[in-house]
Amino acid sequence: MKHTLSSRLYFAHPGRIGGVREGYQSVRARDLGLDEGWFRDSIAANPELAIGPCRRADLLDDDDEEWFCWGTEVSVNTPDALSIGAMDVLLVSEHGRVGIVETKLSYSSERRRQVLAQVLDYAVHLQGVDIGGLPSIPGPQVDRNHIEDHLSRGDFLLIVAGDELDTRAVRLGTALLGDHVVNQWDLALVDLALYGTAGGVAESEFLIVPVLRHALVAVPRHIVRVEVGEDPRATVRITREVPEGPVEPSRRRWSEKEFFDHLEANPELSLEFRQLAAGLVALVKRFPQRMAAFWGTGDVPSLVVKRNGKGMVELYPRWGTVSFRATKFDDALGRDVADSYRERLAELLPVTKLGRYPTVQAPETTRVAAQLLSVIEKHVEVAESRSS
Q1: How many domains does the chain have?
Q2: Would you say the pTM of this structure is higher than 0.85?
Q3: Helix axes 167-176, 109-126, angle to 10 degrees
Q4: I need a labelling partner for 294 at 20 to 30 A (CA). Which of 33, 230, 247, 318 fits?
């Protein structure tokens, strides 16, 4: 199946029978004079162009997580400093997951053949790279520890985006990754379908309709080795060999039991941290209609507590830290309760001003854990009383 969208988009008036009329018609980037740089810069300015379809397809660990542009034309090198090339767009989520976006156009035949191999080449050489050699982290809402964790594990979201991705790109992606990948890579092929007004393409504005053409989620069944020759720009070659023993899922999803088993198996975590985790889970179970707990993926579990689908507090046993998404509080609790919640947290946390992503480090967590739990419980109770 080459295309899934109609070549026409229509205006319609609810309640009016027969009121549908043609509004926009499909156009190509060439018709509009657009090049790959325009696609690159558009995604950098609004990552949702590429991330949105992935979000709807459940390719993200948290469908509420925000993504940021980390840089454009970001150079990737081999360990001996040979240049691999430059990633079109480097993205990072608020939870530290890394996204690599390559753009291509339907009339760029050379790029069509190379783009999938290129994005895999970048992923291979980006894993474990020193974060100091990458652009500055985009703001305090992204924690450096979380990024380094994802980089070390090679936990990447790979996206090829452009106009009119063809079936050859889909088939090649399936052949390279398919159901055989052991790396923590999910691959998304996103069409940025373009539509101009039905009267012509000379209008100053047109529509971009992001569509997920294909998604490949990492389900390891074989070992995948990516081999690159002496030329750092050489085409990636994939070889497969069946592992001798069982292979663990590359992106493990933790459960409540596994989370607390992990806490018990790590005595360096303070008693106060454990009690905070237990208290938060008990709170979620008191109000299951609007609250939920998420246990994370990867080598070590985490705990994210949400209300109304928005994060209130996060616990990371890997570092013994407690974090908050201050921009989510209004939707989680309601404006008035959220304002009070911010004020109490600002009094407790060792910061002069509550920013977008305040984090309590391990030594301080022990001191304030009991007070944090009390503040969270009281504000959830108030919010629940107002919602009933």
Answers
A1: 2
A2: no
A3: 30
A4: 247
